[in-house]
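Hypothesis: this fold can be encoded by more than one sequence.
Test: take the structure tokens below, design a sequence, compare later.
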């Protein structure tokens, strides 16, 4: 397959909220360009970029996928990205590897919370973007309303390059504002037509606004324009390009992805408005560090430069093995070569190289600067790693992903499948950096953490499909603790006689509460050898083991001081085992007399919420026994709430916060301290424990 000059490449992510039409638009662009010969649909599960069974059944994009098209001697690499909140970190990871973005805004619903989120991601990587106002063929579609809403939401002037002819059932075509031509559509083909008289004045106003915006960018041009001299066609095109690349304004296109209207014009706008890799390198130079001395290195987007690439995504393919998707920043990568992974200092053998068109692999002998390629079966390479020429090492900054926000305990349906669950999940973790999986040593549960309940459900569906193991998902156990509120003394006497040598151990202890976080303290106050030295560690061992098991509800005991002050022994029958049992008996007796209480973990929570949701979010926290510590205003009309909330109230908080804030809220939490549980709740936990013991 022919390689393209770096100036003729466009690497573009299609981004928006879920259901805006990203996959349909990607499909329409592929069909219009001739990259595919039939137009698939999301509803029928026949699109190029949504091919995973979980995506087809849910009719949403779950994982980003690659495709490409050729248009007017240009190569456009497309990344169809998720818009659903649970999977949106994948979109962020892909934006790290592209040079521009098409943001879809619905002509019906306008800008949504997820649209604002992906806009912020695009701002994070400083990539130019254009807007496609989609669904102009739907009832209640409103182009001008969508324009004003995106200007308000993104705080950037929106300049239409096209406007629709009609809307809803009367949407029949578009007006090209640059060339002042109108196009109707017949069998997916554009047919030039006169601009309808009823919208001609509006079209002229849009053109005037576009020309003025371009003229304002250059003093000499502005002077000529004010003197009545028309801008040339080349000056207009150059002005649009410069305005888009400098992000002084936001070029807007429109159409219908489902009806394939306005798609040709969108592809032309991508080539005009979004940068090639070399143009992007001038805006934002490609820089990394030399791993030997940590000095900054700059790489030109040139085939003669040493090879360097960034792995932005990993796919666990059941047939091809692990696939590493990479963006070449400099130099050229050839099939059957060797490279250095500078992130973990290991050498990798490159076998075949591919381009991806959805799930279809198209072999390539080499990939050059600015290209996006795929290589299979790299041993030590993961998402975020840098690959480069061994004698010219460079390491690019690794993108860190958001921490998981929800956890569930999982258990295999079939006994003995624990190993299969672990192996399968570790393979899935390679392709999804937002998942976490570990075994809790205290509760003995396998815990799977992710970005939301749907995220975890999809992960377990994949586990079943790819690795043949079914898993049950349940709310994880809370790591409660037990402690005391007062002092108490007790004797533990273990005496057993059953013919021959018996067992005898006797000890007296005193318990005292320690301050919260005080841990455990053991003091040996024995005098006069009432318990010989060799048996005293056994007493402590029995106490420690019982503390781990718990006494009133089966949870570990904390914040306790134990004094061993008296006891007795038998010269023949005493043993370490007898004193260990005596220590355990003494602790259990004293503990129940020392006003035992249950403690619960309290989490330090930070929540970002839009201004309008502040009251409902705080009200919800209060209902969860939360204590708001403070509220701080944030940029973009948001508020940050700091609160202390019991862990038991936060297990499914991700779903609740999304509901309260319409998906616009974010939160993070970490362990803060332990606090006493209210009596009625403690009694419920203890009762549940008793029931389980009886069962």
């Amino acid at each position: 397959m022919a390689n393209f000059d770096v100036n003729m490449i466009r690497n573009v992510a299609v981004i928006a909220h879920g259901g805006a039409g990203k996959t349909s638009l990607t499909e329409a662009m592929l069909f219009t360009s001739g990259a595919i010969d039939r137009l698939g649909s999301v509803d029928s599960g026949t699109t190029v970029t949504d091919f995973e069974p979980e995506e087809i059944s849910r009719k949403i994009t779950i994982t980003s996928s690659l495709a490409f098209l050729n248009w007017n001697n240009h190569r456009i690499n497309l990344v169809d990205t998720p818009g659903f909140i649970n999977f949106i970190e994948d979109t962020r990871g892909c934006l790290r590897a592209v040079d521009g973005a098409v943001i879809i805004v619905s002509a019906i619903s306008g800008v949504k919370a997820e649209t604002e989120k992906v806009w912020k991601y695009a701002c994070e990587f400083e990539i130019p973007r254009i807007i496609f106002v989609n669904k102009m063929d739907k009832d209640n579609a409103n182009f001008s309303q969508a324009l004003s809403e995106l200007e308000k939401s993104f705080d950037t002037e929106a300049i239409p390059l096209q406007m629709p002819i009609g809307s809803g059932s009367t949407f029949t075509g578009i007006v090209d504002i640059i060339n002042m031509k109108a196009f109707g559509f017949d069998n997916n083909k554009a047919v030039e037509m006169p601009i309808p008289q009823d919208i001609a004045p509006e079209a002229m106003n849009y053109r005037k606004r576009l020309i003025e915006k371009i003229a304002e960018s250059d003093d000499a041009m502005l002077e000529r324009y004010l003197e009545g001299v028309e801008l040339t066609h080349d000056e207009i095109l150059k002005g649009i390009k410069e305005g888009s690349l400098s992000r002084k304004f936001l070029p807007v296109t429109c159409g219908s992805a489902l009806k394939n209207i306005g798609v040709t014009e969108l592809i032309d706008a991508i080539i005009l408005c979004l940068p090639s890799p070399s143009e992007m390198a001038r805006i934002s130079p490609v820089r990394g560090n030399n791993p030997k001395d940590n000095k900054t290195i700059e790489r030109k987007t040139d085939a003669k430069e040493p090879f360097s690439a960034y792995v932005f995504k990993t796919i666990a393919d059941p047939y091809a093995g692990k696939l590493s998707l990479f963006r070449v920043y400099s130099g050229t990568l050839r099939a059957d070569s060797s490279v250095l992974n500078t992130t973990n200092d290991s050498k990798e053998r490159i076998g075949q190289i591919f381009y991806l068109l959805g799930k279809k692999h198209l072999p390539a002998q080499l990939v050059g600067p600015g290209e996006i390629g795929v290589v299979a079966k790299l041993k030590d390479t993961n998402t975020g790693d840098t690959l480069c020429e061994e004698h010219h090492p460079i390491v690019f900054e690794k993108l860190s992903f958001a921490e998981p926000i929800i956890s569930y305990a999982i258990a295999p349906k079939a006994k003995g499948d624990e190993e299969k669950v672990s192996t399968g999940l570790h393979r899935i973790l390679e392709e999804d950096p937002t998942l976490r999986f570990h075994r809790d040593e205290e509760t003995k549960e396998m815990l799977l953490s992710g970005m939301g309940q749907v995220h975890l459900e999809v992960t377990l569906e994949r586990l079943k499909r790819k690795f043949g193991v079914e898993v049950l998902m349940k709310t994880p156990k809370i790591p409660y603790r037990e402690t005391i509120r007062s002092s108490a003394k007790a004797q533990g006497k273990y005496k057993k006689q059953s013919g021959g040598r018996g067992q005898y151990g006797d000890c007296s202890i005193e318990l005292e509460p320690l301050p919260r976080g005080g841990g455990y303290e053991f003091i040996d106050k024995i005098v006069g050898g009432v318990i010989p030295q060799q048996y005293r560690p056994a007493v402590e061992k029995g106490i420690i083991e019982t503390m781990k098991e718990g006494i009133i509800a089966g949870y570990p005991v904390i914040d306790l001081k134990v004094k061993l002050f008296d006891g007795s022994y038998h010269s023949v029958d005493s043993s370490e085992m007898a004193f260990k049992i005596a220590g355990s008996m003494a602790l259990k007796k004293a503990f129940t007399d020392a006003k035992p209480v249950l403690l619960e973990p309290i989490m330090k929570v930070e929540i970002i919420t839009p201004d309008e949701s502040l009251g409902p979010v705080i009200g919800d926290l209060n209902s969860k026994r939360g204590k708001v510590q403070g509220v701080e205003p944030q940029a973009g009309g948001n508020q940050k709430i700091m609160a202390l909330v019991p862990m038991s109230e936060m297990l499914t908080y991700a779903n609740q916060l999304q509901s309260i804030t319409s998906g616009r809220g974010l939160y993070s939490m970490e362990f803060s301290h332990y606090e006493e549980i209210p009596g009625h709740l403690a009694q419920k936990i203890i009762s549940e424990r008793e029931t389980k013991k009886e069962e």
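Residues 576-593 form the longest helix (18 residues). The CA atoms of residues 234 and 240 lie 10 Å apart.
Hypothesis status: open.
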